[in-house]
């Protein structure tokens, strides 16, 4: 009796395996993205009902999360969140860390809301593949996290019109794809990062209304203060008295 499976049988088994794997990836991907959007809803208040009335988690028909207001999916059949666009919806709360469950997210726009608190220090772990991040016109405070430099796909970063303090991390100069960077209207100090070739495309008004910033397209940073030596002063004083 021939126990060796035919090539046709092998092909059928492979096809079934691929199909099961695809279904598994579909279910897992869908669930993680559902968890992501649930976390946003749990973290951010929507006092005027501009967003959440369309976010109905009780329905689980195919592609249902792709119909949510402010949500773009990669493809209608993939149920993977591509962009979250919730600008100027008067949302209130802190940065929703559960966004990390939208693992394929490439664009995040939470501008023009009433968000507050720190931008997470581990933000590169939360949104590792984003190309655009817009948090402008909120009430974020604290320092700009250095880990943003690990968001290596970033080409547009807007943090303007918040309450951010401290220095702009020099590490942000490692963002080789950056084309837009705006931190105007904060309380930042110190030198601006060197973005290499992109620095020439970032105008001075991207740093406006930060009284302590300098360098790059702004006036040069002051040099270190000159040190005086008491011994030298005493010698000069003695020479002057001797001459006189």
From TrEMBL:
This protein's GO CC annotations: membrane
Which keywords appear in this protein's UniProt record, sorted alphabetically?
Leucine-rich repeat, Membrane, Repeat, Signal
Keyword Ribosomal protein present in the record's keywords: the answer is no
Primary location group: membrane
InterPro entries xrefs: At_inactive_RLKs, Leu-rich_rpt, LRR_dom_sf
Annotated signal sequence range: 1-29
- Keyword Membrane attached: yes
Q: Name one Pfam family in it.
A: LRR_1
Location in the cell reads: Membrane
Mind telling me what this protein is named?
Answer: Leucine-rich repeat-containing N-terminal plant-type domain-containing protein
